[in-house]
Amino acid sequence: MNQKRLDRINELARKQKAEGLTEQEKAEQKVLWQEYLADFRKNLRGQLENITFVEADGSLTPLKSLRKKEH
Asked: N or C: more exposed end of the chain, with fewer CB within 10 A?
């Protein structure tokens, strides 16, 4: 998500607290928030998939392989 969209999310949040939003602004805020959450989840998932555990014997175990063993 680019900075322009983040700024718009923040602008709408400030306006909502100060004076309220129109129905059109509420719809825009909802769409922007859904996009933000989708990007956030994608980035978090990417970070989690790159986590590696160091075992007692010094070997490295990626988190991905541990998840596959559980299922």
From this structure: C
CA 51, distance to chain mean position in Å, is: 17
Q: What's the domain range around 29?
A: 3-70
Alpha carbon separation from 40 to 34, 46, 58 (Å, rounded): 10, 10, 32
Cβ neighbours of residue 55 under 8 Å, at least 6 residues apart?
61
Q: The domain spanning residue 64 has which CATH number?
A: 1.10.287.540
pLDDT tens per residue, the chain (71 residues)?
Answer: 899 999 999 999 999 999 999 999 999 999 999 999 999 999 999 998 889 989 999 999 888 776 666 65
CA distance 51 to 29: 33
